[in-house]
Structures are given as C-alpha cells and as structure tokens.
Amino acid sequence: MLSRYDIFCKVIDVGSFTRAAESLSYSQSAVSQAVKSLEQELGSTLVNRGKDGVTLTADGAMYLPY
C-alpha cells in the first residue's frame, strides 16, 4: 500500500477521493481514511471536502511540497 502522503498527493492531483481511489485501485473509504489519519497525525485539516471535490487548505498547501 502507498504511504498516506502519496495517497494525499493523488487526491489533490485528481481532485476527489473517488477518482483517487479508482486510480489507485483502492476503495474510496481506504483513501478517505488514509487522508484523515494523516490529518490526525499532523493535527491539521489538509483538504476541504465538498460535493464538488476537494481543495487544499492553507495547511495542506504548506505540507504538499514535502
């Protein structure tokens, strides 16, 4: 399985948890849980979740280059 950071990057690249899951051949739930786990570890929200997809938060934008 990819690291949570790699999954986070894929979610941002494709703009949605569902498309990231399809691209990675993971379940949408697994992708969502990986990003949520990363957010909990960092103590920060990395993405805004909406019905139109995801967008980076300010914290997510700072973390993404790493």
Task: Please describe the structure with a list of short key phrases separated by commas or semicolons.
66 residues; alpha+beta; two-stranded antiparallel ribbon; 4 helices; 2 strands; globular
Describe this structure in words.
This protein has 66 residues and is an alpha+beta fold. It is built from four helices and two strands; from the N terminus they run αααββα. Strands 1-2 form a two-stranded antiparallel ribbon. α1 (4-14) packs across α2 (17-24), α1 packs across α3 (28-42) and α2 crosses α3. The radius of gyration is 11 Å and the shape is globular.
The end-to-end span amounts to 19 Å
Level of helix content?
Answer: 55-70%
- The helix-strand sequence is HHHEEH
Individual helix count:
4
Low-confidence stretches: none
Radius of gyration: 11 Å
Number of strands: 2
Any chance you could write out the topology, listing elements then pairs?
Blueprint: H1 4-14, H2 17-24, H3 28-42, E1 47-50, E2 53-56, H4 58-63
Antiparallel strand pairs: 1-2
Helix pairs in contact: 1-2, 1-3, 2-3
Short synopsis of the structure:
The chain is α+β, with helices and mostly antiparallel strands.
